[in-house]
Amino acid sequence: MAIPRAQGHEMTRTVTDRMTAFSLVCHGQHDIQPGDASLDDFGRWQAQLTAQHLFTLPVCAVYTSPLVRAGETAQIIADRHVCGLTVDGCLGCLLYT
Q1: pTM, to two decimals
Q2: In the structure, how many helices (H) and strands (E) does the chain have?
């Protein structure tokens, strides 16, 4: 799927060396099945769109929970930014729905 360009939402903020910013991202839409489901096509598109949106920021690390769908979302973002991806078991959801 092609990723549309956001119109009218240009980034006007700048990040300096003295400021650390965190962006929290929820995983994309996933397959309808019980348990730890993978992203569906729409969820992959959502992750690609998010990675494009974050590309204006200096992302130097991506952290994810061990959930498959969270890892897939995080990997798409990390690949776009050519940065490391860390899986951390302390991150995660309370319910796998």
Answers
A1: 0.74
A2: 2, 2
